[in-house]
Amino acid sequence: MYQLSFSMSEFLEHYWHKKPTVIKGGFQNFIDPISPEEIAGLSMEEEVDSRFVANLNDKWTAEHGPFSEEKFGDLPESHWQLIVQAANHWHAGCAQLTEAFNSIPNWLFDDLMICYSAIGGGVGPHIDQYDVFIIQGSGKRQWRVGAKDIGQYKETCRASALRQIESFDSIIDEILEPGDILYIPPGFPHEGTTLEPSMSYSVGYRSPKEQELISNFADFVLAHDMGDVHLHDPEFSAQDNNGKIRQRDLENLTQMLKSAFEEKHTVHDFMGCLLSQSRHQLDIVAPEPLWKAEEISQHLSSGGDVQRVSGLKALYHEQDSNVAYINGEIIKVAEEDIAFLKSLCNSVMVDQAQLLSSSAISLLTDLVNKGYWFIEE
Ligand code: SIN
Ligand code: CO
After folding, report:
1. Superfamily assignment of 8-205 in CATH?
2. Ligand 1 centroid vs 51 CA: distance in angstroms?
3. What's the mean per-residue pLDDT of the chain?
4. 110 with 130: CB under 8 angstroms?
5. Which residues of the chain carry a pLDDT beneath 70?
């Protein structure tokens, strides 16, 4: 089990969305959850999002996976980096590493990205719009971080698929060793350079954008056939200049817009559906043959467990906790199954410790048959 050596509450208070920092020994005695061979194996898979970035003799290239076996038989000595996105979706050890960050809510979590770098490898100076904890595994990398972007940095394109900036002065310049963690809030330029062949793990969090919430809300309203009404104004009266939008009319129209956002259940469902959708592909495979409720029940009572597909999001609201949002779907339960529904969302595993009603077993069976939860056989 991976455990942080520091208090996340204190960290959040002092650094989250405020300033970058290095936490030396953020994990004690850190052991890589994955091997370089396994990373190469993941990058050969069609469903896995991977990139190979090289900077030999200052010439930058970036290629997207999947890669063939030959690629890894013929690698340069230095100046390259293999990157696998959402490794927690495909590798159990990587998924366990993310659990150390469980006190940050799952709705903000994006993915765990792994970088395997040869000496001199990196992706160059750039700016992300993510909060990221970069955990150093084996090897050593030098990290530089600059002051927050307020428009002073110049973008440059040294290779397609690589967004870089020209340069920046550092406010942090440190060498990371195994178990050290670098936290970078959105908007701070950074660059890692590999000093010894290195494995690093970026635990990324992405806060939704205002324009994204608004445009997704509009899609949700249309998809659910809501708000299909025109302005109704029996108090309407004649006006002098017909090119004028009167203040009272503007207020009525604005109120119409606001009332859509004030509909509590609509907003709950919209946020739950949006935030429970993963931005990266999931390893969802429906079982064949499908499970029967009695079989699931028997499996649990004989000490077995049922696990959630890694990276699949299951959320509920603090208010209205009889509704769960699972991978973008709305699931309602009766009062008696609220505790079960919360444990589905808060834990990645269901076992017999949770005494399940027949309706809870039936819900779990549906989730297993959708491939959202699974039974290891
Ligand atoms: C890297 O490890 O070089 C890429 C990670 C990042 O900069 O976000
Ligand atoms: Co970055």
Report:
1. Cupin (2.60.120.650)
2. 12
3. 96
4. yes
5. none
Report the pLDDT value the prediction gives residue 12, as an integer from 0 to 100. 98
Domain ranges of the chain: 8-205, 210-262, 293-374
Ligand 1 pocket, residue 123 CB under 6 Å: yes
CATH topology of domain 293-374: Malonyl-Coenzyme A Acyl Carrier Protein; domain 2 (3.40.366)
pTM: 0.95
Q: Which ligand is nearest to the CA of 188?
A: 2
Residue 321 is predicted with a pLDDT of: 86
Would you call the peptide bond into 36 cis, given omega within 30 degrees of 0 as the criterion?
A: no
Ligand 1 pocket check for 43: Cβ under 6 Å:
no
Whose C-alpha lies nearest to ligand 1, atom 2?
A: 115
Is 198 near ligand 1, meaning CB less than 6 Å away?
no
